[in-house]
Amino acid sequence: MSVDRNTTAETASPPVALTMGEPAGVGPSLIARLWLSRDKHALPPFFGIGSRTAFLAHVADLPVRDIAHPAETAAAFDSGLPLLPVDMAGPVTPGAISADTAAGVIAALDMAVSLALSGDAGAIVTAPIQKSALYGAGFKAAGHTDYLAQRCGLPAETAVMMLACDGLRVVPVTVHIPLKEVARQLTPDAIVRAAHATHEALKTRFGIAAPRLAVAGLNPHAGEDGALGLEEGTHILPALRLLRDHGMDISGPFPADTMFHAEARNSFDAALCMYHDQALIPLKTLDFWGGVNVTLGLPIVRTSPDHGTALDLVADGKTHEARLDSMLAAFRMAVSLSQGRISAPAAGDMSDGHSRTEPAS
Ligand SMILES: NC(=O)C1=CN([C@@H]2O[C@H](COP(=O)(O)OP(=O)(O)OC[C@H]3O[C@@H](n4cnc5c(N)ncnc54)[C@H](O)[C@@H]3O)[C@@H](O)[C@H]2O)C=CC1
Ligand SMILES: NCC(=O)COP(=O)(O)O
């Protein structure tokens, strides 16, 4: 099927930028496959930011078209992947990280943020980074989420991570910190900040007029009246009282182990979780292939697949087996959000056309 991209509404919007992420990981090949399936999925023009070497290391015959500005995207898109090139200090070995590529990974992110802030890119979709590789090269942020806030000139904590799939949205209040640090770093302020960012995004980005938030406890059985932990009383409840005083429909703290079955999921529009795995395990269990990571609280739109670099798959020579679904879902959400359209289906709604079982290709 051939798609006349000039007649689509998306043509008028600035194109979405896709950062290459970890060059040795699955990201560049997923971006390449997104471009290769542009007609099948009727995708509007987009451009990559990264090193040509990274893309060709994974898909040797990929046509790549260097561009100097996102405005050249539409003209280049039909004949090759439009690419804003970024230099890299070393070669790319699929499946093997290298300290030489870290600076290029970060430069791609910096370029993407500048273009999103200037309005030349409608949104950013970030392919996964190998965080350990960047930490080794002096990257001071924990991940994209806080790094993007800093690049937007905002305190790191302004950015809030949400993961969304059909039927579930989760927000971890603490994110990339050791488990033993969670109770220390979990503050009423952090809960209030995450709740406000989530509430606002549900209204403005996800089209929910009166969002319902549910909050997980930190401890087993939400503390069992203090017998199994005190943070529910000392940290979570004070935050919830404040938020209710502000008129928010927010319930909890609930025992986290009973919040995510189907009936429970229907009772809220987003779940605020106290730590990374409490949020991401239910989401990725429910829909690893369709999950999208979306950053809230920033003046720019950023989404990402929910999965990581899949270095194991690449190292085993199985890059072609990587599922495109999450990248495709992240791209679609980025396009919708960048156009001010409502994104992501309502809880329980499977109407966006992708299936949890059939891979997108
Ligand atoms: N947005 C981002 O930049 C993210 C980055 N990461 C980073 O990725 C690195 C690896 O993290 P892991 O925890 O191992 O998670 P991972 O998601 O990379 O891999 C977990 C398992 O899922 C498989 N997998 C991942 N994506 C797949 C796909 N598209 N199709 C088929 N199979 C797939 C992998 O082969 C592996 O067996 C870490 O450095 C982590 O920090 C992880 C999540 C998000
Ligand atoms: N587990 C989520 C993840 O690692 C993504 O983090 P970020 O790079 O989006 O901050």
Automatic annotation (TrEMBL):
Its main location: cytoplasm. GO terms for cellular component: cytoplasm. Transmembrane segments: none annotated. Its cofactor is Zn(2+); Mg(2+); Co(2+). Binds 1 divalent metal cation per subunit. Can use ions such as Zn(2+), Mg(2+) or Co(2+). It comes from the Bacteria. InterPro entries: PdxA (IPR037510), PdxA_fam (IPR005255). It holds the Pfam family PdxA. It catalyses: 4-(phosphooxy)-L-threonine + NAD(+) = 3-amino-2-oxopropyl phosphate + CO2 + NADH. It is found in: Cytoplasm. NCBIfam families: pdxA (TIGR00557), PRK05312.1 (NF003699). Catalyzes the NAD(P)-dependent oxidation of 4-(phosphooxy)-L-threonine (HTP) into 2-amino-3-oxo-4-(phosphooxy)butyric acid which spontaneously decarboxylates to form 3-amino-2-oxopropyl phosphate (AHAP). The active site is located at the dimer interface. This is 4-hydroxythreonine-4-phosphate dehydrogenase. The gene is pdxA.
